[in-house]
Amino acid sequence: MFKRKKQAVTTTNAINLTTVNEPMSVITEQIKTIRTNVNFAANDVNLRTLMVTSAMLGEGKSTVSANLAVEYAKEGMKVLLVDGDLRRPTIHKTFGLVNQRGLSSWLANQVDDVNDAIHPIMDNLFVMTSGPKPPNPAELLGGLKMTDFLTTATRKLDLVIVDAPPVLPVTDSQLLASKVDGTVLVVRQNVAQKAAVRDAMTTLKRSKANLLGAVLNDVQDHSHRGYYGYQDGYGYYNNEEK
What pTM, to 2 d.p., does this model score? Predict the structure, then answer.
């Protein structure tokens, strides 16, 4: 499994892959901090599958997913990043991949070998794009084949990160929540509404999600124009904090 030739990382589309483009930047350091805090939050859990989601669109969940995947891979873990947003996928653009086959293809039995839907990207990092948009994304993500896929993948890999759809507009993430070991909620400053974040957390808990915490994204540091804050990066807030 996962034996094909690695692709060159292309980062000119969609998401800014800061961990590749600016490995020494403060933002990359904050991605490392998120990785560390996720590990601490999951200390009672054997974290093999992690879902990253948000309350609504445009909060940066795919940015966090992709950059986290790179940093875990740099640490020596074998990581599979899965674009589980079958409705509005972006991961294939981030890595410059053709989205002809992917998760939807495998779940809908349109490929015989799962390796045909997975792309080696760099040392220890593999990417599974979303595949063509299906007519029934919720049914595919909530089905037994998705459960079997995650189980099989964790036998071959150290960590599977699923970039999932936002919680409130569709049911997809609710269906995925009970299939993964942990969930991180991305909250974008000046975009996310408090009521929506509360509703998303309540919905995830009802779906039996192991909500590890929330990443506060795009925090403006007014002393450094154009940078992102929690000291120019991303802040991690554990779910137990008030």
Answer: 0.86
